[in-house]
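Researcher: I'd like a candidate sequence for this fold, 104 residues long. If you have to choose between options at a position, lean toward the conservative one.
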């Protein structure tokens, strides 16, 4: 009999702070003032915030929902969900693409 235990976050705040830390990164904090000065100031901030709200936030939420549903890594989660819905198992390649993009 195979018994597995899964760990969980100590609280909601710990999860939120870990997600923010993973999404922001130190490079963005260092580079942002320079990019702000060379790209137009407040106009850049407006476009940047709109881009974050309209593109990055839905992608981040969907990644969290997929990971929570499948309780697996990105490639395994996408393949598992694709098999459950009756589509091609090759959707797992999309998870590998996301992992590859992480290193770019």
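Model: Candidate sequence:
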């Amino acid at each position: 009999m195979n018994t597995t235990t899964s760990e969980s976050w100590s609280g909601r705040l710990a999860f939120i702070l870990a997600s923010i830390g993973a999404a922001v990164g130190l490079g963005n904090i260092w580079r942002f003032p320079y990019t702000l000065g060379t790209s137009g100031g407040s106009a850049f901030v407006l476009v940047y915030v709109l881009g974050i709200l309209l593109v990055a936030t839905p992608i981040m939420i969907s990644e969290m929902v997929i990971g929570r549903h499948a309780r697996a890594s990105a490639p395994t989660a996408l393949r598992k969900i694709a098999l459950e819905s009756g589509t091609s198992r090759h959707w797992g390649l999309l998870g590998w693409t996301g992992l590859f993009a992480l290193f770019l």
